[in-house]
Amino acid sequence: MKSGLKLIGFVAVLVFAVLTVVVFTTYHPRDNRLPNGITIDRILVRKSQRTLSVFLKGREVKTYRVALGAQPVGAKEQEGDMKTPEGLYAIDYRNPHSDYHLALHVSYPGPEAVRRAAARGVSPGCDIMIHGLPNGLDALDALHRQKDWTAGCIALTDEEIEELWRITPDGVPIEILP
Q: Spelled out in words, what is the top-level CATH class assigned to the domain 37-177?
């Protein structure tokens, strides 16, 4: 009887240890920060894969997992549709005082989006950003990626947006694919 209880206890500890390792590696990936001095020249977002990749001289140097607008399928059509836009844009300015931890502004809407929205009598929307977590909610860390939750922006962890902020100069092109 005692050996049976010992075995159950051992198995429970083993299962707990394995689950701890899985959770830790899933939500706290190994430190793979890009070195200081790196300046990227392109950003590629793949909405269907929930990834944002950064490039230097045509070579992908890092990929981040992201959360998108709460309605991620399809291109942004109008303000309030909760969609992340698709197309080719640029990082045109940065906001260090955002309601989210740092924010890089995406140059959406372009002339075509403005024209399409005007033809329908709606606003195309604006203020599409790549940003961190809402200020004060940094404890969410990578858990925020479990569900698309933004109003159309692209969200990273606070640590990730700090790195992206550091390596991304204004004017960098960003392509957002379906």
A: mainly beta
Gap between the Cα atoms of 17 and 12, Å rounded: 9
Cβ atoms of 38 and 167 closer than 8 Å: yes
How far is C-alpha 156 from the geometric centre of its chain's CA atoms? 4
- With beta carbons less than 8 A apart as the criterion, state whether 130 and 95 touch: no
Whole-angstrom Cα distance, residue 43 to residue 53?
Answer: 6
Which tokens go with 175? 């392509």
Q: Where do the structural domains in the chain lie, given as residue ranges?
A: 1-30, 37-177
Euclidean distance between CA atoms 106 and 171, whole angstroms = 10
- Measuring CA to CA, which residue among 147, 158, 132 is closest to residue 50? 147
> On the CB side of 143, how many CA atoms lie within 13 Å of its CA?
7
C-alpha angle with apex 75: 152 to 81, nearest 5 degrees?
A: 50
The total of other beta-carbon atoms located within 10 Å of residue 111's CB is 7
pTM above the 0.85 mark? no
pLDDT tens digits, one per residue of 36-85: 889 999 999 999 999 999 999 999 999 999 999 999 999 999 999 999 99
